[in-house]
Design a protein that fits this description.
mainly alpha
Length: 103
């Protein structure tokens, strides 16, 4: 069986002609076939990111709550000290003594 020569121009034109039709068909097929997989992966990475964000934010929120509690106690202490200083600065109240009847 003799080997026939290959017409390279005809082969390339046939491949390009078929590609014009097949590339969009393969693209559409891949888009619709892979859409559920891509959506599932996106949700997985999104939930993983949310979990990681919560893991990072929890200690920061606890620290802020502790700082707020410390600020509340400091303000309460300052209020008590201010009240005490006001009482010290005000003149003492005169005691009213009821007159006694000797008789």
């Amino acid at each position: 069986m003799p080997i026939q020569p290959v017409d390279l121009t005809a082969l390339v034109s046939a491949i390009l002609g078929i590609s014009i039709v097949l590339v969009p068909v393969i693209g559409l097929t891949a888009r619709f076939a892979l859409n559920p997989t891509v959506t599932a992966l996106a949700k997985l990475f999104e939930s993983r990111g949310a979990d990681e964000t919560m893991r990072i934010l929890e200690p920061r929120i606890e620290l802020q709550e502790q700082e707020i509690a410390a600020l509340h106690s400091a303000v309460r202490g300052l209020t008590d000290a201010s009240e005490f200083e006001r009482q010290l600065a005000s003149p003492p109240a005169k005691k009213i003594v009821a007159p006694t009847v000797d008789g």
